[in-house]
Amino acid sequence: MIASDIKDKSLRDKGRLKIEWAEKNMPVLSLVKGRFKKEKPLKGINISACLHVTSETANLVSTLKEGGAAVVLCASNPLSTQDDVAASIALDIGIPTFAIKGEDEKTYYKHINLALDHKPKITMDDGADLISELHKKRHEELKGVLGGTEETTTGVIRLKSMAEKGVLKYPIIAVNDAKTKHFFDNRYGTGQSTIDGILRATNMLIAGSNFVVCGYGFCGRGVAMRAKGMGARVIVTETDPLKALEAAMDGYQVMSASKAAEIGDIFVTVTGDVSVLKKEHFLKMKDGAILANSGHFNVEIDIAALESIKKSKQRIRDFVDEYTLHNGKRICLLGEGRLINLAAAEGHPAMVMDMSFCNQALSVEYIAKNAAKLENKVYPVPKPIDSQIAELKLKSMGIEIDRLTPEQEKYLASWELGT
Ligand SMILES: NC(=O)c1ccc[n+]([C@@H]2O[C@H](COP(=O)([O-])OP(=O)(O)OC[C@H]3O[C@@H](n4cnc5c(N)ncnc54)[C@H](O)[C@@H]3O)[C@@H](O)[C@H]2O)c1
After folding, report:
1. How many other β-carbons are positioned within 10 Å of the β-carbon of residue 374?
2. Of these four, 144, 169, 411, 417, which has the most CB atoms within 10 Å of its CB?
3. Which residues neighbour 419 within 8 Å (Cβ) at sequence distance 6 or greater?
4. Ligand 1 site-directed mutation target among 50, 53, 152, most atoms within 8 Å of CB
5. Tens of pLDDT, residues 139-170
6. In this predicted model, what pLDDT tens digit does every residue of 69-109 receive, in sequence order?
7. Are 53 and 85 a contacting pair, CB within 8 Å?
8. What CA–CA distance (Å, rounded) separates 54 from 378?
């Protein structure tokens, strides 16, 4: 077996307990795992997965292994790895793992390349770094790949751009775009875990604060909803008029980032965009303002600009860098501007990742069975998979719903019947 590159093997027991804890809250994925164990739909397939190395991911990769796949795993972000979980994945589950929390950029890409050395037939990405490395630097290896999956909004945007430009060399299933993924993971998962990350890093009181959410997409809605629930005065900034209108009607203050910069206590970026908070904003901010990002890449807060206007900088707590600016004000950047929910907390709760990772497992199975029919495009998760996951999740939550009667089905499909 290929040697893993992890921080500390002795953390394995702690990691195993965390993985078992997550498994208890992933009943739908457990059902898929049980079926995979019997049917072995992924027999003989090499999978290279580039995902956040968390206890939920451990349950996904062990499901793929039970399905017969030979899996290797690397991190999809330098700060999101749980080192104890990485140790258990490598040693207990027996999946070669290349991930160390806090790894520098060189190691991050070395790990991606180690995962690619596995010669995958299927790739799994969260942010599209693995697939882009394969397309940019290891072109000759693209021929052997059947397809891939992508977990997040930013990755799907990158891959759609590759497909449009004709450079995408194999089919992709956009797991993010399944309803049972982004309606829940992006909204309730990011909503809760982003607040969790900010609290663990700062122990600030949310109640009574001016809490600025930049971006009112699925993640932004979740963060705003949870901050409001904790008593913050929530301010939303947007560039899309429809989303801005929606935020206003949901009861939030909506304004430009420049205006919000003057009054905000805590700022969270969740846009998937670049330089959302920049120099002109930092200069207007109050002394003690807190900046956090929960979008995929560390580009939403312009850190280079913050560095350029600082007089000094010191790490005052884990995941809190205090920048003192030339104007005398102090601004705190959390988690080096990387996904705060994964840097300072544990990412999304298992209960929501249950659905996201079911989409991953079933999409991988779909690629294994249907690769020959697929073109080099970005496909949605097939609708029956999405609906099946929703049904199973409801069942696992003990919720029963009504079914359409034949009369209702006929009525809803007809145009003749009116008043
Ligand atoms: N932290 C996590 O665990 C996690 C989970 C899921 C997704 N994500 C990432 O979060 C980001 C957002 O994902 P989403 O699903 O909410 O996307 P989305 O497309 O639903 O929403 C993004 C919103 O940001 C707005 N926006 C873009 N540029 C802006 C700017 N300069 N100022 C203000 N608003 C702007 C867009 O109009 C849009 O409404 C992506 O990078 C995604 O990959 C993170």
Report:
1. 16
2. 169
3. none
4. 152
5. 999 999 999 999 999 999 999 999 999 999 99
6. 999 999 999 999 999 999 999 999 999 999 999 999 999 99
7. yes
8. 26
3-class DSSP state of 213: strand
- Where do runs of H (alpha helix) occur along 328-419? 340-343, 350-370, 383-396, 406-413
Instruction: With residue 243 as reference, give the H or E element that holds it.
Output: helix 241-249
In the numeric block, the tokens 């875990």 are attached to: 193
Give me the helix-helix angle, 27-39 and 383-396, nearest 10°.
Answer: 120
Residue type, 126: D
Closest listed residue to residue 50, CA positions, set 107, 82, 97 = 97
Q: Render 60-112 in DSSP notation, one character per residue.
A: HHHHHHHTT-EEEEEESSTT---HHHHHHIIIII---EE--TT--HHHHHHHH
How far is Cα 151 from Cα 157, in angstroms, rounded to an integer?
11
The pLDDT-based confidence of 387 (bands split at 50, 70, 90) is very high
Instruction: Return the best residue to mutate from 51, 53, 271, 359 for the ligand 1 pocket (most ligand atoms within 8 A of CB).
Output: 271
Residue 335: what pLDDT? 97
Please tell me the distance from the alpha carbon of residue 172 to that of residue 360, in angstroms, as a whole number: 11
Note the pLDDT tens digit of each residue in 288-322.
999 999 999 999 999 999 999 999 999 999 999 99
pLDDT in tens, 11-27: 999 999 999 999 999 99
Query: Taking CB atoms and a 6 Å cutoff, what residues make up the pocket around ligand 1?
Result: 152-154, 182, 186, 190, 214-220, 237-240, 243, 270-273, 276, 294-296, 339, 341
CA of 270 to the centre of ligand 1 (A): 4
Angle at 385 between CA 57 and CA 351, to 5 degrees: 40
Q: Residue 212 C-alpha to ligand 1 middle, in angstroms?
A: 14
Q: How would you write 162-200 as a 3-class SS string?
A: HHHCCCCCCCEEEHHHCHHHHHHHHHHHHHHHHHHHHHH
Atom of ligand 1 lying closest to residue 296 CA: 41
CA-nearest residue for atom 39, ligand 1, is 217
**Distance from the CA of 293 to the center of ligand 1, in angstroms?**
10
